[in-house]
Amino acid sequence: MINIILPVDFGEKTDQLIDGAVKFAKEVNGKICLIHVAPTDIGFAIGDMGYQYFPEVEENEIREELVLLNKINQRVLAQDVECEHILKQGIAKDIILEYADLKNASYIVMGSHGRSGIYDVFVGSLTKGLTKSSKIPVLVLPIHE
Protein backbone atom coordinates (compact mmCIF):
# COMPACT_ATOMS: atom_id res chain seq x y z
CA MET A 1 0.00 0.00 0.00
CA ILE A 2 1.27 3.44 -0.88
CA ASN A 3 1.12 6.47 1.39
CA ILE A 4 -0.58 9.60 0.09
CA ILE A 5 0.03 12.85 1.95
CA LEU A 6 -3.08 15.04 2.10
CA PRO A 7 -2.53 18.48 3.65
CA VAL A 8 -5.78 20.12 4.79
CA ASP A 9 -6.47 23.67 5.89
CA PHE A 10 -10.19 23.35 6.80
CA GLY A 11 -11.05 25.92 4.13
CA GLU A 12 -14.27 25.96 2.15
CA LYS A 13 -12.81 23.65 -0.52
CA THR A 14 -11.57 20.98 1.88
CA ASP A 15 -14.55 18.69 1.24
CA GLN A 16 -13.86 18.65 -2.50
CA LEU A 17 -10.18 17.97 -1.89
CA ILE A 18 -10.99 15.07 0.43
CA ASP A 19 -13.41 13.57 -2.10
CA GLY A 20 -10.77 13.71 -4.83
CA ALA A 21 -8.06 12.28 -2.60
CA VAL A 22 -10.29 9.41 -1.47
CA LYS A 23 -11.13 8.59 -5.09
CA PHE A 24 -7.43 8.62 -5.97
CA ALA A 25 -6.51 6.49 -2.95
CA LYS A 26 -9.08 3.87 -3.97
CA GLU A 27 -7.69 3.78 -7.51
CA VAL A 28 -4.12 3.18 -6.37
CA ASN A 29 -4.84 1.18 -3.20
CA GLY A 30 -3.40 3.99 -1.12
CA LYS A 31 -3.50 5.09 2.48
CA ILE A 32 -4.23 8.75 3.20
CA CYS A 33 -1.92 10.46 5.66
CA LEU A 34 -3.74 13.66 6.64
CA ILE A 35 -1.71 16.58 7.87
CA HIS A 36 -2.71 20.00 9.07
CA VAL A 37 0.03 22.56 9.65
CA ALA A 38 -0.95 25.27 12.09
CA PRO A 39 0.98 28.53 12.08
CA THR A 40 3.40 29.14 14.92
CA ASP A 41 1.96 32.56 15.71
CA ILE A 42 -1.69 31.72 16.49
CA GLY A 43 -1.38 32.72 20.15
CA PHE A 44 0.07 36.15 19.42
CA ALA A 45 -1.85 39.41 19.26
CA ILE A 46 -0.91 43.04 18.81
CA GLY A 47 -2.35 45.44 21.38
CA ASP A 48 -1.57 48.61 23.24
CA MET A 49 1.33 46.83 24.92
CA GLY A 50 2.81 45.61 21.62
CA TYR A 51 3.01 41.91 20.86
CA GLN A 52 1.51 39.65 23.48
CA TYR A 53 1.36 35.88 23.64
CA PHE A 54 -1.76 34.12 24.88
CA PRO A 55 -1.03 30.41 25.28
CA GLU A 56 -4.68 29.61 26.04
CA VAL A 57 -5.69 31.00 22.63
CA GLU A 58 -3.15 28.77 20.92
CA GLU A 59 -4.19 25.73 22.96
CA ASN A 60 -7.88 26.28 22.17
CA GLU A 61 -7.19 26.74 18.46
CA ILE A 62 -5.03 23.60 18.31
CA ARG A 63 -7.70 21.64 20.19
CA GLU A 64 -10.41 22.79 17.74
CA GLU A 65 -8.23 21.94 14.75
CA LEU A 66 -7.58 18.46 16.14
CA VAL A 67 -11.34 17.92 16.43
CA LEU A 68 -11.75 18.91 12.77
CA LEU A 69 -8.85 16.67 11.75
CA ASN A 70 -10.38 13.74 13.63
CA LYS A 71 -13.69 14.28 11.81
CA ILE A 72 -11.94 14.21 8.43
CA ASN A 73 -10.06 11.07 9.47
CA GLN A 74 -13.34 9.36 10.38
CA ARG A 75 -14.93 10.50 7.11
CA VAL A 76 -12.10 8.93 5.09
CA LEU A 77 -12.19 5.70 7.12
CA ALA A 78 -15.96 5.48 6.57
CA GLN A 79 -15.24 5.32 2.82
CA ASP A 80 -13.07 2.20 3.26
CA VAL A 81 -9.75 4.00 2.82
CA GLU A 82 -7.00 3.63 5.41
CA CYS A 83 -6.21 6.93 7.07
CA GLU A 84 -4.11 8.47 9.80
CA HIS A 85 -3.61 12.07 10.81
CA ILE A 86 -1.22 14.48 12.43
CA LEU A 87 -1.19 18.16 13.36
CA LYS A 88 2.08 20.08 13.46
CA GLN A 89 3.07 23.70 13.78
CA GLY A 90 5.56 25.44 11.56
CA ILE A 91 6.12 26.45 7.97
CA ALA A 92 3.63 24.44 5.94
CA LYS A 93 5.83 23.58 2.95
CA ASP A 94 8.73 22.39 5.09
CA ILE A 95 6.55 20.40 7.49
CA ILE A 96 4.64 18.71 4.65
CA LEU A 97 7.84 17.72 2.85
CA GLU A 98 9.35 16.37 6.09
CA TYR A 99 6.17 14.37 6.77
CA ALA A 100 6.17 12.98 3.22
CA ASP A 101 9.76 11.85 3.73
CA LEU A 102 8.97 10.35 7.15
CA LYS A 103 6.01 8.40 5.73
CA ASN A 104 7.97 7.35 2.63
CA ALA A 105 5.04 8.75 0.67
CA SER A 106 4.48 8.16 -3.03
CA TYR A 107 2.30 11.23 -3.62
CA ILE A 108 1.24 14.55 -2.14
CA VAL A 109 -2.31 15.55 -3.08
CA MET A 110 -3.15 19.25 -3.19
CA GLY A 111 -5.96 21.45 -4.45
CA SER A 112 -5.62 23.93 -7.31
CA HIS A 113 -7.48 26.84 -5.70
CA GLY A 114 -5.21 29.71 -4.64
CA ARG A 115 -5.74 33.18 -3.31
CA SER A 116 -3.39 35.67 -4.99
CA GLY A 117 -1.30 36.25 -8.09
CA ILE A 118 -2.29 34.94 -11.52
CA TYR A 119 -0.44 31.61 -11.12
CA ASP A 120 -1.54 31.31 -7.52
CA VAL A 121 -5.17 31.84 -8.52
CA PHE A 122 -5.04 28.57 -10.44
CA VAL A 123 -2.57 26.55 -8.43
CA GLY A 124 -2.01 28.09 -4.98
CA SER A 125 1.18 29.35 -3.41
CA LEU A 126 1.67 26.33 -1.14
CA THR A 127 0.98 23.95 -4.01
CA LYS A 128 3.41 25.89 -6.17
CA GLY A 129 6.09 25.69 -3.48
CA LEU A 130 5.57 21.96 -3.03
CA THR A 131 5.70 21.19 -6.74
CA LYS A 132 9.01 23.05 -6.97
CA SER A 133 10.58 21.40 -3.91
CA SER A 134 9.10 17.91 -3.69
CA LYS A 135 11.07 14.82 -4.64
CA ILE A 136 7.80 12.90 -5.13
CA PRO A 137 4.88 13.64 -7.46
CA VAL A 138 2.42 16.30 -6.36
CA LEU A 139 -1.04 15.54 -7.69
CA VAL A 140 -2.96 18.78 -8.14
CA LEU A 141 -6.73 18.27 -8.07
CA PRO A 142 -8.94 20.91 -9.67
CA ILE A 143 -11.09 22.58 -7.03
CA HIS A 144 -13.98 24.57 -8.49
CA GLU A 145 -16.65 26.91 -7.22
From TrEMBL:
Q: In terms of domain of life, where is this protein from? A: Bacteria
Q: Which residues cross the membrane?
A: none
Q: Domain UspA, which positions?
A: 3-142
**What SUPFAM superfamilies would the database entry show?**
Adenine nucleotide alpha hydrolases-like
Q: Which Gene3D superfamilies match?
A: HUPs (3.40.50.620)
Annotated family: Belongs to the universal stress protein A family.
Protein name, per record: Universal stress protein UspA
Q: Which organism is it from?
A: Chryseobacterium formosense
